[in-house]
Amino acid sequence: MLRLLLLASVMGPPPTSSAPEPEAPAEQRDAPTAVEDVTFALVGDWDDELARGELEPVLAANLADLGIAIEVTTRPPGNTFSHRDWARELETEEPGRVVFWIVRRDAETVELYVLPRGSDGYGRDVPLPEGADDLAESLAVIVRSIVESLPVGPPSGMRTLEPDPQPKLEPAPQPRPDPEPEPDPGPRARIGLSYLGTSLAANAPWQSGTALDVGIRFPMRLTAAVTSGWTTGRARHELSQLRVHRVPLGLFIGYAFDPSRRVSGRVGATATAELMWWRPQASAGLNPGLDFRLGLGVRADLLIHLHRGLGLVVSGAGVGWLRNIRVDVGEVDATRTVLRAVPIGAELRGGLQYEF
User: CA-CA distance, 317 to 294, in Å (whole number)?
Assistant: First the structure.
């Protein structure tokens, strides 16, 4: 008698307190498959109200005439999505399997869920009776009603579960904007002070002094400088010795390599005008003199940046003299050459510069 009353309550209109939600648009479902076995899971702890051993025989007896096998199992607590994933795994093992699970909502209500193949699942609230036998009997009647209706369509009186949440798509990376060109720093002036060593003649192979450079570097890496210096030394001869002083004045135009690197450099061409004067030492036949010479050459600078605008500079240059100098001493029978400058000379510089 109790079974008939429960069946009437299940098949009748649902109570107003648990009215089904408005039906969602028809979902794409697989073709209905006859139910061959049922898996029913108790989620959480049900030992006080409904034992696994009490529920399984009641469900089996209720479904025996339909030829449906029943298995009751347990599940740890979790969210609806985790239980649904588990149910889908079980359904893939057997085409005719339907999975139910029950969750306690509060002290008076339990929630029954079912996952037919090809759907997101359905759920409904079931009032909790006072006794475990009444709850098992009530669940058996509801399960039978659902199993019989599934080949026809979705179970009536149950709400459709929400589909699995879609993973949040990370926004497509925005293309990096092209780097803005660095502002034109404009011309950069520099000043340098260095040691200056130069060759002169066979009997005056090397003379030393100092050099001063004042230059400018343009944004297109063109560089120019005006250089001046002073050197002194002796021209040794077996009969006459000279103390020679030289003041070179030059113009340098060239190309400056990447100034942002720690080690950089410059290469270019030079034009030099050199004023030279000499004073004889212990020679009665030679008077002091003054002359100049002109030359063209090439020069290379190695620049090591030390701190901010301060840098260490080492330079080498070669100069071909277009107008050169020779110092002769006139004698009665012949002319004796005391100093003959070589046609191609060498320069070496080493010092510091500061670029503003």
Answer: 15
